[in-house]
TrEMBL record, chains A, B:
Residues 8-106 form the HTH hxlR-type domain. GO terms for molecular function: DNA binding. The keyword Transcription regulation applies. This is Transcriptional regulator. Pfam families: HxlR. CDD domains: HTH_ARSR (cd00090).
DNA sequence: CAGCATCCTAAATGATACTG
DNA sequence: CAGTATCATTTAGGATGCTG
């Protein structure tokens, strides 16, 4: 965005976790290291384009490590860095809020 | 988005707080009720278009109330609902994470 | 398997001008 | 004051096809 993003430290979180998929990917990685196709499988509907794009940004911002194993077939493992793992309380707070929403559908998640 | 958004309850938070301004507006409203121009003043760079759009969506989702006083000049006050106020822990968690980021700029915010 | 290249859509946002 | 209307920009995301 062209926005100056002046307001506060929260902005740092917002630019990184921009877009709905970003948060969901982090949420999956909080469960442990994942390969590319594993992430695709656990995130129904995501396109490889989007997944790659988000993972690259996470790498750049230092919340995810990418480990490529030079094998046949190739194997690439994505894992949260310590900084990335510190995002768990934020995700938990989001989930807690969503669960507390009264009329919005099935809170059974 | 055309996304199915199937994953989890967190998605409810994500669709509502979509875009960088959305979270920042809620953050300001957590400090208390605000008038339209007050919000504009506390959110440098936001356009009235964007502010109106976000506030309308917050109204629709039941996290903000809009109170219009039929006076001259008109006065409209936006205030978080109880559900909206429950977003505070989430915003706090975001801010806490951002403050914990080591190399990202001035953590003095 | 793990992408990348290319084209396209939708939505959030911005700029500017105007109104009840 | 509190918006609305219109136009343009930016970007997340999707679809498809191809490669190392």
């Amino acid at each position: 965005m062209t926005t100056p993003l002046p307001t506060c430290g929260v902005a740092r979180f917002l630019v990184l976790l921009d877009g709905p998929w970003a948060t969901l990917i982090v949420r999956e990685l909080l469960r442990g290291p994942h390969r590319f196709t594993e992430l695709r499988a656990t995130l129904p509907g995501i396109s490889p384009h989007t997944l790659t794009s988000r993972l690259r940004q996470f790498e750049t911002h230092g919340i995810v490590t990418r480990t490529a194993h030079a094998e046949i077939p190739p194997r690439v493992v994505y894992e949260l860095t310590p900084l990335g793992r510190e995002l768990r309380p934020v995700l938990d707070a989001m989930a807690a809020w969503a669960a507390a929403v009264p009329a919005a559908g099935t809170p059974a998640d």
